[in-house]
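Human: I would love a firmer grasp of how sequence relates to backbone shape in proteins. Could you go through the record with me and say what the backbone is doing? Here is the record:
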Amino acid sequence: MRQPLVTAATVALAAAAIAAGAHADQVVLTSAADNTLIEDPTGAYSCGAAQYFFAGKVGVNGGSTLRRGALRFNFSSIPAGSTITSVSLRMYCSAAGLTGNYPIALKRFQKSWGEGPSVAFGGGGADSAANDVTWLHRFYTNTLWTTPGGEFVSTASATRNVGNVGYYTWASTAGLVADVQLWVNDPSSNHGWCVQGNETTLQSVKRFDSRESGSAAARPLLTVVYTPPANPADLSGDGRVDAADLSLLLNAWGTTGPGDLNASGLVDAADLTLMLAAWTG
């Protein structure tokens, strides 16, 4: 019987390399869609392509009505099977009705909504256009919310006090991580967040720059830290399948050691085929 070339020390080193191989990656995403739900019984107004969206309550000149932001990101750049470890959101408050601190909450939307071509220059909105989200519609003109004002979970995923003009960051929370993990696992469930402000105090409304902002730095930015799924053929844990991994597999040939990629109980030609198919060089 052929004497295995692997030693206990080699197996231990390979196992340690695999354990240490899990590495965190990071993406910084600009919002893929944003809009404002403007309180109106007919859903006549929206801000789909505006440079801003709003959250809070406006003053008497605006009818003392409510504004709720709608914000969504695209997570297709994060590999399926990744584990989300941190999520933080930075937004720029470019105007404030009152400069006092008021809580701005992020609450996960439970249904999809749209961003149409309506362009507004203030919180009063513009005439709603096709596919705009409104207080009444998920997609103007024919798809309605079951509950006017939007359908979202009642518990905030994160909350941050916002005062005067400036940049604000919603630090990572278990809620934000859980939301993004859900959306990475099931992209069809990604309906983004409702950005909800103080809805009792007149002029508590805050204006945030949207993805259409003329300043790229002021657009909503989401920073996601994640651990990508492990490649079972990456025996050395360096993020590549190359000669180092091939050496570990060959040293374990004919044993149950590192390289049993098909879990057959033996490192053999079938495992070598799988490694070559995953080769990155």
Q: What stands out?
A: Residues 8-20 form the longest helix (13 residues).
